[in-house]
Amino acid sequence: MQKNTLEDGKKLNMRYLVIRSVGQGGFGITYLAEDEVMKQHVVIKEYFPVLLVDRNEAGELLLPESEEERERYREGMKRFLNEAKILASLFDVPGIVKVLDYFQENQTAYIVMEYVKGISLRSYLERMESEFSFEKACAMVRPVMNALEKVHQKGLLHRDINPDNLMVEEDGRIKMLDFGSAREYFLEQDRERTLTILVKNGYAPPEQYEKRGNQGPWTDIYALCATMYEMMTGCMPPNSMERKLEDGLYAPSAYDVEITPEQEELFLKKGLALEVQDRYRSVREMMEDFFPEGQEKKEKRKNRKKAVLSICALAVAALAAIGYVVFRSKSQQELPYAGSFVRGSKEYEEFMEYVKEFAVATEEYTESDGFEAVRYTLNEETVKEINLPSNINAFRMKADELMEAIKEKGYAPELTGNEKVFEVEEGGYGSIQTSFFIRDNYETPDGIGLEVRYEYFTNEITFIRLINKNGTDADYSRMAAEIIGAMFPHLKDEITADAIWEGKNIFEEQEEKSNQNIQGFETREIYVRFLWRDGVDEATICFFPFGGEYEKPAYRW
């Protein structure tokens, strides 16, 4: 056993048998393991920030002594697991290693990923007899560009793209490994101690070296272009901070790389630009330059309303042109969402101008993290003009399908209320959260209240609430279990009526001043939260889609 690693043969989560450690960095340890349930090899990433924790000879984790460092450890682990949830929702996206499972154990956390047969891009380049042309390099990393675009839409940045974190499979396809959300947290907290082990020399742009650097999609774009530079020239780019003092980056053409002057100018001035404002703002913008055959001419817009409508139409047309199948799945469909635009882009600005012009009400408020935000209320006609579903998370089941299933189970819910909600929230991080949904309220003869919210355009369920007003606990929990069984048949044996009533304490307790208690379940498809208040008979069960009630396309810079 190497220093700090789990011993070979260690079993995790009662199913994963550790074969050996295959890598260790400043932030975590990677293992090859056997999934004894699925009978296949997997890769497991263990949360292990070396500056905070250690292991004794018995293999037990040694946590920091100070409460301040323990809190840093817990916050880093929280980000580690949040990253896992986001990546798990991108399960079907090519170009990203698949996350199969994630869990907490041994006072730390683990992410289980598919075992990719292949070699790192670093090893691949070392075996190449000649370097890439610009077009060949673009073609090889195009799946990574497509994947990065989807990752950025989820509000996540990779922050560590380099040839060591790109895997070339046996068939030549390439995938991204090792995201760094929690890694970035430690860099923010203790830059002096962590900078040398958490920032990749040659691939990290200046903003990753700077305290409170302005990071966004452009940060990953620099790293990807730096990787492409090495693919073409055989040389790693100079350190970006050294480049700011004296730029010693040679043009690819100086190495006789096959690249046109136009391509080289775009690549150097917009891909490897040192200043954030000079770099591409989004992967899509970069791809339109690198793959000009995919560009589409945009018609001139006569006013803001037509501008927003043409953006929506182009988004749908572009998806159809490249053959995306529009459907809702665990990985979130490729259908464009209202508000899912890159911050600072022309589409972002035009959409918000349109919202502000046609809003019927405006409310300023403070988010839980202390940032100021604004909520705009729209009318139905304005939302119809936008003609795109909101970016609120949703189940695959539609509301009418759920109500039909409930009636088949013998329940007779009566509709007691109906409301349409059309809101756009501009958050402190520059995120745009759109919520276009219909809320139906029902009550059964047994005294159980049912609230169903569903997306205005797709009719897909976004939220379900059961309220035990006058019914019995047995009826209440049985109805909840049967709803889950109708939505996810494979969970009906796992989440039974008794299981719902007993719950699991997987959600953090509220602050002591609150009398609200929370427990529940969490699976790859659904969050089930059972809430009750001390001294109050009324209890509530809430069902959220995987990923939480909302999916914010914000970039956390």
From TrEMBL:
SUPFAM superfamilies assigned to the protein according to its UniProt record, in alphabetical order: Protein kinase-like (PK-like)
Name of this chain's protein: non-specific serine/threonine protein kinase
Gene3D superfamilies, A to Z: Transferase(Phosphotransferase) domain 1
Record Pfam families: Pkinase (PF00069)
Binding site residues for ATP: K45
Domain Protein kinase, residue spans: 16-291
EC number: 2.7.11.1
Enzyme class: transferase
PROSITE patterns named among the record's database cross-references: PROTEIN_KINASE_ATP (PS00107), PROTEIN_KINASE_DOM (PS50011)
Entry keyword set: ATP-binding, Kinase, Membrane, Nucleotide-binding, Serine/threonine-protein kinase, Transferase, Transmembrane, Transmembrane helix
Gene Ontology MF terms in the entry: ATP binding; protein serine/threonine kinase activity
Organism: Fusibacillus kribbianus
Catalysed reactions listed for this entry: L-seryl-[protein] + ATP = O-phospho-L-seryl-[protein] + ADP + H(+); L-threonyl-[protein] + ATP = O-phospho-L-threonyl-[protein] + ADP + H(+)
Transmembrane segments: 307-327
Superkingdom in the source lineage: Bacteria
